[in-house]
Structures are given as C-alpha cells and as structure tokens.
Amino acid sequence: MTKSDEKLAISGGSAVRSKPFPPRRLFGAEEKAAAVEVFDESIATGEAFGYGGKREQAYEKEFAEHLGGGLAKAVNSGTSAVLAAIAALELEPGSEVVCPPITDPGGIMPIVMMNCIPVLADTNESSFNAGPEQVAAAITERTRAIVVAPILGEPLDMEPIMKLAREKGLPVVEDAAQAHGAVYHSRPVGTHGDIAAFSTMFGKHYASGGQGGIFFTRNEDLFWKARRFMDRGKPFGTDEPNNVRLGLNLNTDELSAAIGSVQLKKLPWIVERRQAVAAAVAEGIKSLQSVTLGKIVPDAQSSYWFMRLTVDTDKLTVDKDAFAEAVGAEGIPSSASYRHIPAEHVWFRRQNTFGSSGYPWTTPAGPVELPNCEAVAARNFLIHLHENWTDQEIADTVAALAKVEKAFLKS
Ligand SMILES: Cc1ncc(COP(=O)(O)O)c(C=O)c1O
Description:
This protein is 36% helix and 13% strand. It has 12 helices and 14 strands. Strands 1-9-8-5-4-2-3 form a 7-stranded mixed beta sheet. Pyridoxal-5'-phosphate binds next to helix 3.
C-alpha cells in the first residue's frame, strides 16, 4: 500500500515495507541432485572426482553454445578468468591496458599481476561504463589492450569501441562478470570483443558454486594460450613435451561444473525476470520527477545484476546519498553507491604491488581525473532486485520511491 503522505521512515515514520524481501533461493533441489550424483559416482567407482572431466567438458560446451558458439573454459573465479584473458594476450611487461573506471578489484588487479599498467578510461555521461570517446582518450602509444566491463549488466557501446580497437590493432577483453545474459546489437555481451571473462560466484546471475568463473573466446589461438596459463603452463595445443610457460592453477572441478550446468539452464529465466521487474519499476515511477531507471546505450538490453536508478538532484532538497538512504529506510534493499573506483583504492594509490617496487608502475600515482565518473557516482544508486521479486516487491519499491521523492522534492 502506498503511504506517500506519511513521515519518512528515516525520520521515525513507519516504513513502506516492514517484511524482509524474499531471498533469491538460487540453489535448489536440482543443484543438490547434480552434486549428489557426482558423489554417488565417486563412491560407486571408488575414484575421487577431479577436474577436466565429462561434466566440466559438457558445461563448457553448453556455455559456449549459449553464446552462439566458441570455446569456453571454466575456472575457479571471475578474477581467474580475467587473469587468463590478460595472460592469453602475452603482453610485454610495462604495457598499458585501458581499463574500466568503475569495476571490481578482480577486474583490474589481474592486469597489474601480469605486469601491465592499468589506465582508467572515464565513464560516459550517464552510466558506470566507459564510452568510446573515453576509451579513445585513454589510449597512448604504449597501449597494448583494452578491457571493458559492462557494469551492473549494462552493455557498453561496443561497435565504436571495436572499430577503434581494430584501427589501433588492440585486442579487447570483455569482463562480463556482471553481465550474463545482457545483449548489445542483438548479440550477447561477451561475444563482441576478442575474449570474455565471466564470474559465476554465488552473487552473480547464475553460479557454479560459492566461487567460479568462465573464460570464452572464438579465437582458437587465444584459447590455447589461456588454457596453458590456467593450468601451470601445460603444453595444451602444442607438440611440446612439457610445461611451456609460466602459469597458475586456475582450474575448476567436476562438482562446480555439475552445479554450473544446472544453473546455466536457469539463466534465461533469471534474466527475463530481472528485466521484467526493472521494466515494471520503470513503469511505476514514470510519473515521478526526480528518479528514473538508469539509461543504457541504444539497441541493448541490460541483464540487471542490479537496478541502477538515476536521481536528478537539482529537483531535490537532498543529495543522492540522502535520497537513497531514505529509500533503504523504507525497507527497500538498496545501496547508496557502487563506489568500486580503482583510482580511489589504497592498493592502487599507494601502488602496493610487488615488495616496495610499485612495479609495473614506474612513476608514483598522480591524481586521476574522472569527471564523468564523479558525476555519475553522485547521481546514481542501486536497488538490489532479483528474479524472485513478486508484484508486491515491485509495488513497494515504487511506493517507497514516490514517498521519498514527495518528501524531498523542491517546491
Ligand atoms: C566486473 C568484475 N570483474 C571481475 C570480478 C571478479 O569476479 P570473482 O569475484 O568471481 O573473482 C567481478 C566480481 O564481482 C566483477 O564484478
């Protein structure tokens, strides 16, 4: 029920929603059955399950097919998938890599781990993602690759980015950790660049267990390069007698793959539901004056890892943080910000990398100017939607937004 005439909960009034929102219930009987089957088989044969087995191979094939064909390799985290992607590019130490301005540390630390220097491109003017102009502005003569990240499931404008990258001869990694099921120009996110990395940890659209990730490419050469790095340099795809390069053990295992396979089948429904929830909230708030669903690039569909709302603070008596906190106090799961800005992180600013060397950086960190990023961070906040929201959660969210706007709208 809308209680827009009542005192805000943050000021001691009663909240629009007092009952907790429903849990996601991501894992159920099917995941349990798949895991039990792995153990049953192990017990029956007397052999421990391992990695690289039939379930892992099946899961990777299914994943590649869901992206329209290509080569996929499951790994133990999204960070590992990004690391493998950077490693596959075999960049010289000290190479610059253009990076997202807002991203999880797991999307940027692998670049430094591979001895390359991350150069942050600013966001575009209306989202947490870099636009083509900002990517172009971050390219120097030392740039050797571009990493883009469709943050919150919102696609980037990949066509001009890929055109630019091709002109400059730069490979592009799509860090699609947050963007399973998102679409740009009728093709899935993750199929526009040269390599894609996905996270399948428990908080993502679908999960292969508590942690997980998956690497995807249509380029066979890059696939084998990544494969070798992911498994201690084993000579996959070569005639060499033994381990051919420096690498790590980023392998997943049969248990995770069994869960991942079951979960992947649910992904289309999960994305569809999230899109329907976001569309219903957008419809419900269309008469509001200060808050709208975050704008995404044309001819694209977000898969809504989170729902981003943009607040026009010029119309309000409070800033975005106060607005978002008031919405949260009304019982709506939300975050006032998604401030994963690498330039603000201690490790990045102090260049805490290898010993006290600051390597691969060769000059101390200066101030990083990201004016658009500052502006979008000041105007956007997140609602924690998920696929199991019902009409009640949608209605309560709309009611809370209306109530908070009414309280804070300038007269
Ligand atoms: C954009 C991005 N890249 C990489 C990662 C790292 O993935 P993981 O947590 O599975 O290692 C995340 C995790 O949220 C992410 O959001």
